[in-house]
Amino acid sequence: MGYRNKTYVIFDGDNDMWAYAYMKGWNQNKKIDFNFNDAHDLNTITNASSEANTKRKLRERFSTAKQAVVLIGESTKNLYRFVRWEIEVCQTLGLPVVAVNLNKMRRYDADLCPPILRDADAVHVSFNARIIKHALDDFCTSYSKYQGKGDNWHYKEQVYKDLGL
C-alpha cells in the first residue's frame, strides 16, 4: 500500500458541489489557515463513466487517503449508489470521518445524516473552515482513542469559542 496523506471528500455531487468548491477555495487561499491534500486530485471521472469504472477510480483515490470528510446536505442521507458506498469503504479501511453539517449544526443531525454514520465513531461539526481544520488535525490524528467506541462525537461549545466561532 502506498503512502496515505490525502483527505477523501464525500458529498452529493448534484446539490453540494458548492461546499466542496468552498473547501478547495479555502485550501488555495493563503489568508485562510486551511489545507488538505485532496484525494480527488488523483484521477478524473466523467459522468459518462460506468458505475464499475467510477468505483474503480474512487478505490484508487481511497488508496491514498488517511481520513475522510462527509459533507452532509439536505439529500445526502438518501444517496446509496456512491455516498453510502464511499462511507462503507471508509469504515472498512478504518479511516477517521469528519461529518460536516452544511446546515451549521454542531453535532449529529439525525434528520440529515446518513444512517450508516449513526454511532459510527465520526466527529460531527458545522460547515466552517476553522472547525473542519481542527477536526482534521485533532480528531483524525488521535482517532485510535475514539475508534470502536460507537458514538456520535462532537466538540463542546468552548472549542468553537476558542476558534472564534
UniProtKB/TrEMBL annotation:
It comes from the Bacteria. Pfam families: ThsB_TIR (PF08937). Residues 10-104 form the Thoeris protein ThsB TIR-like domain. This is TIR domain-containing protein.
